[in-house]
Design brief:
- By secondary structure, the chain is of the alpha+beta class.
- It has one domain: 3-Layer(aba) Sandwich (Aminopeptidase), CATH 3.40.630.30.
- It contains four helices and eight strands; from the N terminus they run ββααβββαβαββ.
- Strands 1-2-3-4-5-6-8-7 form an eight-stranded mixed beta sheet, sandwiched between helices.
- The protein is globular.
Length: about 160
């Protein structure tokens, strides 16, 4: 476990089964089309890299990273709305990128809603570049509408992380 200090100290640790209910509640509060508790349980059972950030006894951030030969894919990175723009998301992303590089990944991919300008800006600052657009990838708040995803990629130095 590692502790970092932002406006509040954040303790980073692997996500465990006992965290899933709280993580799913934060997911529902933060996203239009949230992952379910089952999605998180499946990711945990599959061995994906999953981290939570805890501040004042509450989970304030979490992420899910999938590894494949030579690459990693960031599947989910969420920060509680009340603690956004404090560097917590950037810190979690950095932890994942370092882990991916240490595990031999040469590149990392992610998808992000085209409307999520703050996240796109964060990813661009961290070296991600747009490589594709997935039309109608995400469900939107309106039942009949869908939103495009921007696919972004960042090269990693094998064995070095960030």
């Amino acid at each position: 476990m590692a502790r970092e200090t932002f406006a509040v100290p954040v303790l980073w640790r692997p996500l465990s089964d006992s965290d899933i209910e709280a993580v799913a509640a934060l997911e529902r509060a933060a996203h239009v089309a949230p992952w379910t508790e089952g999605n998180f349980r499946d990711a945990l059972a599959a061995g994906y890299a999953m981290q939570v950030g805890v501040a004042d006894g509450a989970i304030v951030a979490y992420g899910v990273l999938l590894f494949a030969p030579g690459e990693a894919q960031l599947l989910n990175l969420t920060v509680a709305p009340e603690v956004r723009r404090l560097g917590i998301g950037r810190a979690l992303l950095g932890r994942f990128l370092a882990d991916a590089g240490a595990r031999g990944a040469e590149q990392c991919f992610l998808e992000v809603r085209v409307s999520n300008i703050p996240a796109i800006a964060l990813y661009a600052r961290e070296g991600f570049v747009p490589v594709a657009r997935r039309i109608g990838y995400y469900p939107s708040a309106g039942a009949a509408s869908r939103e495009d995803a921007l696919v972004m990629r960042r090269a990693l130095s094998r064995g070095q992380g960030i």
